[in-house]
Every structure is written in structure tokens, then in C-alpha cells.
Amino acid sequence: MRAAMKRFIPLFLALLLTLQQPAPTTAVIEDVLDIIHVVKEVSTGILKAWDIVQASPLGANIDFPLMREKQKKVLQRLKEVTRQIDQTEEQHAEYVALAIDTVTSHMNLNAPMLAKMNDIGDTVNRISSRYQQMQKYEAHKDKLEMSTLVTFAEWTVSPNAHSVHHLMDRLHLTLFGSEEKANTTGTSSSSSLLAQLATSYEASTNEICNTQQSAQQFVYSLYADIALTELKAYTMMEFSWMMLRVYGKGNFTQEAELMRTDYERRTERTLKLLKDVMTRADRIVWRCDPKKHVAGVTYDEVTRLLQGYIENEVDLNNEETCRETCSFYQSTRSEGCYKDLYCARQPKCSGRLYNCQFVDSDMWVCPSPKNSTRRYEYIEYENGRTLGQRANCVRGTTKVDSWWRYLFWHCSYCFCMCDEQGLKSDRFFNLREAVSDVKRNRVVTGLRFVKKNRIFHLQIQEGELLPRGGINHTTLSWKPVENYNIFDRDVKKGTDYHTLSYESRSIDLDDVDTDDNSFVVTGVRFRVVGAHLNLEACYSEFDFKTGQLLQPEVNSYWKSNDNTDVSGDSKTRREKVSLSNADVSTRTITYSIPQSRHNQYIEFTNTGMDKDAAQSTVPFMDIQDVISNPPVPLSGIGIYYKGRNGYGGFLGPKIITYDFTPHVQVPKNKL
């Protein structure tokens, strides 16, 4: 036994000395593609260990000088061998768990796919269990019998249905399908379980919101779990062949080579399929509705942009006449207050009045509380029609009646849309740029809308860019928005901020993205194109390998979608997302879904007359954080509209995660 252990200890020492050379994988893993690098590092290290094993006479005692003095160091380094894998697994545990939970919850509705996922889970657990057993043997190897280690090694590599080699084949077959069948029939990667899971994930909007991962990140998280499991299996098999050779059970050079070839073939096919699926996977991240809408926390509002307002015809012209009908007044002002009637009992609309119409002559009006941005809670007409939701009127209703003048003219109360700027009207959007701290190698990693001093800002989250597309989690922070007021000296309308109005209330719905993988987003801003708010993204060049921005003060540019609703042909002209007669956004009992696409626009408008007495401005603004998990650099950003038919919906930002597909490369060096 003592002689056998002498052969066992140098074997692990040889492996440890080759594996524990300084390498990127020995530190805390931060970059997105670390799994591929870990596989490469461990595989290469194990292969080098074979050189020492094969250099020794078969079955002979291997006795290295000073071996006993270094035994303590060997034990410590041996612990580092498995820590290299465990460390990477721990780093990805949260994201893998999110992906697995997502699959489990979604697959309950798909029995065949759920069965496959259960099979994969069973296989992964079996391999992990044996791997943990190997770790225990390593921890207590001084007290183990040689037969225990030999039995473990023989079980690991034996050609039967319970061996690790068979489990690896089973795992690969379930997830990626038969390689032979694919080569014979030309089956594409889209038929693989991985591709099906990606497609299913993209179709389930709730899952994207729960994980805050783009479909591409979801695919990579699943791959990380499988790749680490295969790496555990490969490590066990290499250890086993080496142990069996050291203990004089045979040469096993050819067996190990065949096993290595199989692993190399599987890895190569896996990476090719992964790359293909990632190429087609969506990279957009957006936020679903929260379980409960909370003003100022999950959403905010543009207020009093266009608002329902009652005014008598006599006050809609400067001659105090009632010769016309309500519909005659499509753009006018409130010119006075005839005989201090109802006009004297409500706040006057000091702006312009649009789209006036007649509903009925007489009504009961329920005014809103004085501190509200609404004018009315509801209006109940004598003919039975009610505008808004009738409820207990806290301030009491007021009877408002039209009247006749000279028996010929009917002075009717009209229902108009008031466009009034004032202290209760938050209708401003910041036009100043928000740029990450490029001098400290920060890039944009997330977005959210913030209303400060009645001005809506698009706020950026920034983080330090690391090698291979990683982000330093400890540096993540939301860059404070600029603190200014529209009345401040040197603050100019049209330069520092944009004011919405009846004539200028559109916002473009775009995905601003780049196909150039050498650039990432470092800034955002709004500009005004015609009468539309239009999104721009700032791109800066970087080195993927080092993670360094390359002279961002020089190698940066702004990008946008310059199409308008009147320029170009039908293919490039912007399309309007219609929103009319909508109820208050937060009154829906179902979750909003995205209803816009690139190259569209939407107008801020009033809610429906019957549903809300036209008192609110929709869409509302979704102010939730839009970030990815894990954080990554961005290749693009966007503004989109989500909602449900009949409701006002929400405007929100979205992010487009960096495309890592071009960097998923099959290792050039053969095992």
C-alpha cells in the first residue's frame, strides 16, 4: 500500500504543477466567455500531466526526491485542482439557476421537452455526485486503500451504461441530438433541444422579465452548466486512466487517446451548435409590468398635456356669441368668463383648446381634489352618459346647465382638450447627453427613465469594462442625472430640454444597434427631429481581449435612426402606433406586452372620454431599471411601447446586449 501511495502522490503533484501555473482562470472569473477558457486551461493542463506519467516505467515505483517533504504542499495544491472548476461553477451558479428555473417553470406545459430536461438533470446530478466523491477521495487519500481508488477509476472508465463516459454521451445526445443523424440528414441546429429552449424562451415574455437575461445570455447560461458538467466528467476520466496506469493495471495510452478524441469532438460540435443558436438568439432585455404599479416607483406620468375641459361656447370666442356649434372650435382659446358662471368655479385653461365637441346640454361635474393633476373625477350628463368612473365625489358635484339666448342661439357647454403649460404640467424631456466615465473605462450597462424637477431623463448605469466583454460588478452605479430647472438661467428650450405640446408630442420607437463588434455603447441622448423626440446612442471602440476603450475621445460616434413619418418610401417611412380612447394604463388586470417595433412612433395623448374623462396623458413612463443579469456591455439601446388593447400602456427603454457570438471559437490546439 505504501508503494502504491508513493505512485499516487507524484501523479497528483505532476497534475497540480501543470494546472496551477498562473492563468486567467485562477482568479475570480469575471468575463462572459470564461467557461470556454476554463475548459481549455484544464484540458491542456491535464494533457501535460500525462507526459510525466508516460515517462515513468510501466508499473514501477515512482520515487521523486524530497517527495515526503512536499507532501503538505501537494495536499494544498490538490485542493486547488478542483477549486478551479468549483470557482467557475460558483461564479455562474446564480445565472445558471435562473436559466434552469426558467426552463422548469416553462416546460411544465411541454411534456416531451420536460422529459428531456428531467433526463438532462438526472445525468448532470449523477456526474456531479461522482465528482464530489472524487473530491472526498482527494481529501482523505492518505487513509484510502489502493483498491478503493482503483475501483473508483475502473467504474469511471468502464464501458457500460453506468460509466461517466456513457453519461457524457447521453448528455450530449439529449441536448444536441445524434451527430450521426445530423451528418446523414443534414439536420440543422434549430432542431436541437438547446435551440428549442431558446425559441421557447423568446416566446415567453414573462421569463425574460424574471431572469433579466436576453435569449442569448439564457442560452449561454445553459451551456455553462453543461460545459462544466462535461469538464468534471473529463477530469474524472483523465484521473482514472492515469491512476490505473500508475497502479500497474495497464498502459491505457490508446484508451485515453480515444476518450480524449471523443471529448474533443463533442466540445467542437457543442461550440459550433452554441454559436449557431447564439447567432439567432435575441439580445433584447426589457422590463415586464411589476406585480403592483406604484406611482413614482415603477411608473411616472406626463401630466396635463392634453386634458378634457368643459367650457361654454360663449367663452370660446372674443365676441361672446353662441352662433356656432361646439365642433366649430377645433383650435381656440378661453377668451373670458361670461357672467361668472361655471367658468368662475373651475381653474381656467390658459393654453389652447382643441377638438371641442358637444355631448349634452346639462351635467353634474365632480371636481378633483385641488392638489390633483386631474380637473374632474367624472362628469355625468343628463342623458345618462358618464365620462370617467362614477364614484363617491369627495368635493361634491356641481350642476352645470347650458342656456338659450334670444330664443335663437343655444349657449352649449363644450368638451374640449386643453393644452396648458403650468406648474401641474410635467411635459419636459432632457436633451443633454448622458455619457459614461470613459476615462475610467466605464461603459453603459443599463437604462431607466427618471423624472427630476419635472423633466424626464434617460439615466444610464455604468460599469468598468473588463477583458473579453466582462463587467466589474463592484463598479456598477447609476450616473446621477443633471440637476437643472427649466427656469434656470442659461437653460434653453430646444437645447437643454424639449417641451411637449399638441403640435410636438411624438416620440420615435427605435432599436439603435451596431453590427460592429469592436464598438460598445458609452452614451445616450434625445434630440428633436421635426416634431419627434429621437433617440441617439454613443459608440466607442474597444479591444475585446484587453477590455480597454481605445481613445474614446477620438474613436467615438453618435448613431440614430433618421427616418421620419414623411420622408423616404413606404419601406423606410415611420409608422404610427395608434392610441385612442384608452383607459388609464394602470387599470389593466393583465401584464403589458410589447406592441411596437423598430422604425415606428407614438404620440402622447389624452385618455378616452368615456373611460377617464380624458384627464390623464398616456402612455405612462415605465421607470423600472432595465439591466441584464449578469451585466454586460451593450451593442444597442431602444425605446419601445408596451400595453394592452384598450389601455394607455407604457413607454420604456430597452437594452441590446453585446453579441458574443463572434468570440465563441473552437479551440485551435488539439487535446
Largest beta-sheet characterization: 8 strands, mixed
The strand count comes to 33
N- and C-termini, Cα separation: 33 Å
Estimate the global geometry from the Cα principal axes.
elongated
Please report which band the strand proportion falls in: under 5%, 5-15%, 15-25%, 25-35%, 35-45% or over 45%.
Answer: 15-25%
Instruction: Round the Cα radius of gyration to an integer and report it.
Output: 34 Å
Q: Quick check: average pLDDT?
A: 83
Structural class: alpha+beta
- Uncertain regions spanning at least 5 consecutive residues: 1-32, 59-79
- What fraction, in percent, of the residue positions are helical? 25-40%
Number of helices: 12
Detailed description of the structure:
- This protein has about 675 residues and is of the alpha+beta class.
- The protein is built from twelve helices and 33 strands.
- The strands form seven sheets. Strands 14, 19, 21, 22, 23, 24, 25 and 27 form an eight-stranded mixed beta sheet that branches. Strands 1, 2, 20, 26, 30, 32 and 33 form a seven-stranded mixed beta sheet that branches.
- Helix 1 crosses helix 3, helix 4 (about 110-140) runs antiparallel to helix 6 (about 165-175) and helix 8 packs antiparallel against helix 10.
- The longest helix is centred in the N-terminal third of the chain and has 37 residues, at about 70-105.
- It is elongated, with a radius of gyration of 34 Å.
- The two termini are about 35 Å apart.
- About 45% of the residues are buried.
- InterPro entries: DUF4803.
- Keywords: Coiled coil, Signal.
- It holds the Pfam family DUF4803.
